[in-house]
Amino acid sequence: MTHTLAHQHQHQLQLQLQLQLQNDPTDTDDTRFSMNTQLQDPALGTLFRFATAGSVDDGKSTLVGRLLHDSKAILADQLDAVTRTSTERGFGGAAGGIDFALLTDGLRAEREQGITIDVAYRYFATGQRSFILADCPGHVQYTRNMVTGATTADAVIMLIDARKGVLEQTRRHLSVVALLRVPHVIIAVNKIDLLDYDEAAYREVERSVLAVTTELGVAAVHVIPVSALVGDNVVDRSDLTPWYFGPSLLELLETLPAADEVESEVEDFRLPVQLVIRPQGAVAPGLDESFRDYRAYAGQIASGTVRVGDAVTVVPGGGTSVVTGIDFAGTELDVAFAPQSVALRLRDDLDVARGAVIATIDTLPTLTHGLTAELFWLDPRALKPGARVLVKFGTALVQALVPEITGRLNLDTLALEPADGLDINDIGHAVLRLASELPIEEYAVNRRSGAFLVIHPQDGATLAAGIVTAAS
What we know:
The protein is of the alpha+beta class and 472 residues long.
């Protein structure tokens, strides 16, 4: 197959994926963002995704703005506009007259109220790495946005006001981070300048937060004293904290391994099929006649690596075949890995539709109807036993019943307590029964294949994000 033909295939893939995402009410804006960011040249290097989290007024948006500014990732006209707005609002002080939060708080309501409401995504790059950051809200009513931002993150920067220490919302966000198994947690002890760079105050906060992360089972924790307003230890190490010997925040972000770099080599290959590409009608002028017989299965690789020549299994159906081609962004690849969006060509003409999973042969778990899960309840309508919902695993959407709620996490004690329902922002345990069998994997085994969404069957609202703790 020629490169011209491969480019035509990929162009059609991108167009059809975009149309599919626009027309599918169960695909979120974040899914669309993730798919779009992966349709890029693989030669651009490592992509590292990180999110911010923490309680209200801990300085998340200011930290992100300072990080963008000091790493030279702000365009001159954008910086001029932010400087003018800051001046008009009488902002001054140590930041040189710039309100860095304006660089990320893009909604009008956010700027008027001085809070972050929605997840603000920003792309920037340094000489070492490319980044996608998600500035998440701190208010408890926007916990669902924080879950969204942390789900695909390689690292989460948890801000703590050095004057306040660990708060309930800090514990809530750390609980979410622990349950989502975010690979790296960075604790930024912010506003250290307001405590005159006192080491004892920093050490007290450090002890408190490490006690919580230890109790939650969070292993990879890095604690850094910073001042988002002034810029201490954000991009460059500060002379005002001589008692801190670690890296600056940006130095740490540039050196931490991305989850995809590690997981693609150890996890089994999984591709939830989003779209079957089968051109219809006459062959367009200038294209090879073989284009008429082209068939490919498109989607975003959820985990692992696939190579031309690999033997694969397709479920449902259980058919086996061999990968004969991988089309990606106008090129043909010999190997692809998570989270790239690709179109796979198989040797055999199998019955494959949206919702199917293509996987390394003999690695998929037994198909099952039942599971137990951790649920992050995100909707004002409470969950009660007996509720009928839709469950979305990858690209598969099935009807489900919630026969039992087995507990709710107490964010003060971090203990699981009995519960007869889940309210908005609760984190709880539940049993789900599915109408169709799926190859369900535990989240501890496969971070992407073990996650799902709970959707309202009538209005299509996302009710909860879930992670599988056991399949049955």
